[in-house]
Amino acid sequence: MLETQFADVISLIKNARAVALKTVNSTLINLYWNIGEYIHNRVKNAEWGLSVVKQLAEFLSKNEPDLKGFSDKNLWRMKQFYESYRDYPKLSTLVREISWSHNLAIFSRCNSPEAREFYIKLSKKENYSFRELDRQISSGFFERSIIGNTKLSTVLRELHNDLENSFKDTYVFEFLNLPGPHNESDLQKKLVQEMRNFILELGKDFLFISEEYKIQVGNSDFYIDLLFYHRGLQCLVAFELKVDKFKPEHLGQLNFYLEALDRDVKKSNENPSIGILLCKDKDNEVVEYALSRSLSPTLVAEYKTQLPDKKLLQRKIHELFK
Fold it and tell me: Taking a C-beta distance cutoff of 8 angstroms, is the pair 254, 240 a contact?
């Protein structure tokens, strides 16, 4: 009897924490909306140009260094967010009910108000993680639903009241100046961590930079599984680990990451970035190198000489997936 009553108290605590974070999320969305509206009006009235928003970001960083998430790219996203929904009162209310990460994926990738409303409601109803939402958008679920006359499914599972499961939104934690949790699955985390430690064992020339290294391209965020710097080659080295079978588009994705690194992260004195793709096939392990086409044959040869041996990487992947 007492255990049941104690469980009731735990439920009350968890519900209260979830409600508190919902309030934080709503406050955050309102803040981004108001900032977007402010920038929109300044630009519309020709008071601000492109450089002013960058100056604002630098001003915030200098005068309020504890504030996170207010880069010039994010400020422009807030402006786009406001402009996407200001003429749709119904949607402008709904956006307060999902996280900023979810909102960002929807308004930056969906062109019609119907599609945006569809994914907002779907995210809320099905309690989608960011990855689940991103996958549905990529698969054209909205378009397929229209063609197939498919109705939104009923709620498949109850919303979690647990704090960690309900709110894994980096922006909320940045807003509170707290470390944000990753949205990766436990399996993917484990594989990435093991591979990171393995690469570091290969030699002193590899300097670890980050897991889930974020790059921003346009209005979208992308995450590189592992990013290293190689002292001998003087270049960034990006590792992508795929748990499925090798597909040609995996290399296209990796080359896209390398282009973003070379444009926005690489320093002028450094060589073009390198990418290494690691895939687990049903029967074997695949390792592919992504190298810039602008590299000279001599530099390509030097890269391949100093990169980890493919057979060694294949053996390690095999161990990880056993």
Answer: yes
Using alpha carbons, select from 56, 73, 128, 53 the residue that is nearest to residue 98.
Answer: 128
Give the CA dihedral 191, 197, 201, 204, nearest 10 degrees.
Answer: 130
Q: Which amino acid is at 75?
A: L
Burial of 317 (0-12, 13-18, 19+ CB in 10 A): buried
Instruction: Map tokens 């040609």 to a residue.
Output: 248
Q: Cβ contacts of residue 308 below 8 Å, gap of 6+?
A: 199, 202, 276
What are the beta bridge partners of residue 240? 277
Structure tokens at 133: 């939402």
Name residue, tokens 């282009």. 259
Under 8 Å between Cβ of 100 and 169: yes
Q: Tell me whether strands 220-230 and 274-280 are parallel, antiparallel or unpaired.
A: unpaired
Question: Which helix (H) or strand (E) covers residue 53, if one does?
Answer: helix 50-63
Instruction: Give the C-alpha separation, 240 to 234, whole Å.
Output: 20
Contact yes or no for 121/152 (Cβ under 8 A): yes
- Expressed in angstroms, the distance from the first to the final Cα of the chain is 45
What is the enclosing helix (H) or strand (E) of 221?
strand 220-230
Q: What are phi and psi of 126, to 5 degrees?
A: -95, 0
Q: pLDDT for 108-142, tens place per residue?
A: 888 888 889 889 988 888 888 887 888 888 877 88
Which value, in Å, is the radius of gyration of the alpha carbons in the chain? 23
Q: Do β-strands 235-242 and 274-280 pair in parallel, antiparallel, or remain unpaired?
A: parallel
Cβ proximity of 224 and 213 under 8 Å: yes
Entry pTM: 0.49
Tokens of 45: 């009235």
DSSP conformation class of 208:
E
Tokens representing residue 287 in the block: 């390792």
What are the tokens at 183? Answer: 């949205």
Model pLDDT, residue 202: 72
Give residue-wise pLDDT tens across range 205-262.
888 888 888 888 877 788 898 899 998 889 999 998 887 778 888 888 888 999 999 9
